[in-house]
Specification:
With about 325 residues, the protein is of the alpha+beta class. It has ten helices and 15 strands. Strands 1-9-8-6-7 form a five-stranded mixed β-sheet, sandwiched between helices. Strands 10-15-14-13 form a four-stranded mixed β-sheet, with helices on both faces. It has a two-stranded antiparallel ribbon with strand order 2-3. Helix 4 (about 110-115) links the parallel strand 6 (about 95) and strand 7 (about 120-125). The radius of gyration is 19 Å and the shape is globular. About 50% of the residues are buried. The protein binds coenzyme A. Coenzyme A binds near residues 28, 32, 33 and 324.
Length: about 325
């Protein structure tokens, strides 16, 4: 038994905050942000705006994370229905990777189960920041291989902008909101076209945990309600560990991926990883210039864009790789 991605979907908020607009009230510039990160704009569930005293205020509607996740999931399910005849009752499990919950509980997956009418599906959430989607994908793949479930809806969704400290220009420039989803299904034959998940690897490096934290959910006077990051430490971690985990994934297979779908955190990180792998930048599609770092949503969001634009060809070998708070990192290999 092998698992296969049979459909994709994504959704980003309409509100767009460009580097130029951000520079109106933050001491930064389009040139600084682009040259350090490659980011030009980010989509946000609510626009941050300075009040009369210069304090940054944002006004979110109800459940912005739920709204984005539901829309991305709907689009993936519609594609699965149109192309594979998938019915709502075929979905056995919903896995949501997110670190920016609207509410501590219930799990967002349970809210989505009702909203999407997936009558038979179980569901729960996975918290692993930017590596969350890869963790959920690995779990879905393992369940399907083991025969526990046949069809799993995997969603990566974030509204991290809620937890950004807009006074901290090191982190505030990086993050955007969004959601991406894939439908994974069992393929008992695996003979037709060889498509499916070929391998996954996931690691934790808790010794580096303090380099990237988000303590907003445990807010009290001693813990600032915001994402904190040692940017240089995270940068070095990513450019060391991601090539390592990709080599581990490919080890012994003698395979050379056609495309690398990396977590969209920073263009310079992607460039350095490409160099270390001795692969050309053409193999590393990216959309972080438009969306910033959407954390657990970034890989499925990129995958959906590529899928819908016809850029993914049948038979192509794709390597997905991500990293983030934990510190955590992982990779997956699949044939499209
Ligand atoms: N605009 C203008 N100047 C800024 C700035 C901003 N948004 N943010 C920081 N600076 C300033 C700093 O204060 C510092 O000034 P100083 O030299 O007077 O102290 C200077 O720019 C250089 O800061 P530094 O931290 O050395 O910059 P950098 O080249 O390391 O870039 C990051 C900072 C955050 C862009 C970079 O470290 C990075 O991208 N790291 C990875 C982060 C990441 O991807 N996190 C998510 C992982 S999932």
């Amino acid at each position: 038994m092998i698992s296969k991605i049979i459909a994709t979907g994504s959704c980003v908020p309409d509100i767009c905050l460009t580097n130029e607009a951000l520079s109106q009230w933050m001491e930064t510039s389009d040139e600084w942000i682009r040259s350090r990160t490659g980011i030009g704009a980010r989509r946000l569930a609510a626009m941050p705006e300075p009040d009369a005293n210069g304090c940054i205020r944002t006004h979110y509607g109800d459940s912005p994370l739920f709204t984005l996740a539901r829309e991305a999931a709907k689009r993936a399910l519609s594609m699965a229905e149109a192309q594979k005849g998938l019915a709502p009752e075929d979905v056995d499990l919903i896995l949501v990777a997110t670190s920016s919950h609207d509410e501590l509980f219930p799990a967002l997956a349970c809210r989505l189960q009702e909203a999407l009418g997936l009558s038979r599906a179980a569901g729960y959430d996975i918290v692993l920041a930017c590596t969350g989607f890869l963790a959920a994908l690995q779990m879905a793949d393992a369940y399907i291989r083991a025969g526990v479930y046949r069809t799993v809806l995997v969603i990566g969704a974030e509204v991290l902008s809620r937890f950004v400290d807009w006074e901290d220009r090191d982190t505030a420039i990086l993050f955007g909101d969004g959601a991406g989803a894939v439908v994974m299904s069992a393929d008992p034959g695996h003979t037709e076209d060889g498509a499916g998940i070929l391998g996954t690897v996931l690691h934790a490096d808790g010794a580096g945990a303090d380099a990237l934290t988000g303590r907003a959910m445990y807010w009290n006077e001693r813990m600032p309600a915001a994402i904190r990051m040692d940017g240089r430490a995270v940068f070095s971690f990513a450019v060391r560990r991601v090539p390592e985990v990709i080599r581990e994934l490919l080890a012994g297979e003698g395979l050379r991926p056609d495309l690398y779908l990396l977590h969209q955190a920073n263009y310079r990180i992607i460039e350095t990883i490409a160099k270390k792998l001795q692969e050309p930048m053409e193999k590393f599609p990216h959309n972080l210039e438009r969306f910033g770092n959407t954390s657990a949503a970034s890989i499925p969001l990129l995958m959906d864009e590529l899928n819908r634009s016809g850029s993914l060809k049948k038979g192509q070998l794709l390597c997905l790789a991500g990293f983030g708070a934990g510190l955590s990192y992982g990779a997956a290999l699949l044939r499209w």
